Amino acid sequence: MPQTLTKRLARVRSTRDLRAEILDLAAAAVERHRPARLEVISPVISADTIQAEWERVLPAFDAEVRRLLSLHIDEDRPAPFGATIPLAKTNYTYELLRLLVGASLRGDGPQVLAGLMEKIGASQTPIRSALANLRAAELVPDTRRLEVVPEQLSNETLSRIGALPQTLRFRFERGAQIKSPDALLHRARSLLQRGGPGAWHAFALSGVPVAQMDVPKLDLIGTPRLDLLAHLDREGDSFDPMLLRWLDDGLEPEGNVLAPAPVVVTVVRARQVLTRDIGDPQVRCAQPMDVLMSLLDLGLRDQAIQYVRAMRE
Fold first, then answer.
1. Do residues 205 and 284 touch, judged by C-beta distance below 8 A?
2. Count of other CB atoms within 10 angstroms of residue 108
3. For 167-195, what is each residue's pLDDT tens digit?
4. Element (H, E) at 69
């Protein structure tokens, strides 16, 4: 009997949210040919409402799919402590820098402060403070000409000026079957294709695989880890790690920043969502500026510089 795919849904507030989770669960069950169980924990709406919505949605699936799905409601059990990962406040220095890097890679020339503020969705005060940080590090030589030279970037410089993004790291829990980065990449590609689960609409593929698609001759061999970009609402204060269970049931948060992690999620909080569909079949991927940042995070600075130069050709 295949292992059951379990999705835990805590504090569900509406039938609309519940319906979306049921649809995503059904899609995963069919794709992975496994039974799937939805566990609703400490819901805000009543158990009767949840059961009624479940029974209303299920007939939309054929009998074979319905046999794979099951529902469990636990009103008395509190939502799991520590089930979500706290999100740091928006790092405006990083958000500003990534947009300036993007402009440089596209050959757009110097940027206008007002346009950057609009794309980030921030007022003048935090953006000017972020600009001062970049100016102090001599990454922006002239505040009247807002542009950067990506080849000057290094992880050490970004760390020194506080321009590193928040990253969420995931490992395989004890007893889980360890998957290779290539196996995780194969699964991620299916989740990030058009028609993939709604729960994964915030994600995009990044890192080495995208760099290799952009620049096939890049000096890179293999996939050291799976890099994802997550575009999250700036008003949100937490991230649900259960989303990574769509990728693999055995993944859990890795709290040690020095420990190796097979999956790393970089958080972006800007108002403007910047992704692209590339490959065959097409997969939602990060923009070159975010790919560059991930290469730097991996310690691949020489390859990052090669990538910058190739993208400008």
1. yes
2. 11
3. 999 999 888 889 999 999 999 999 999 98
4. strand 69-74
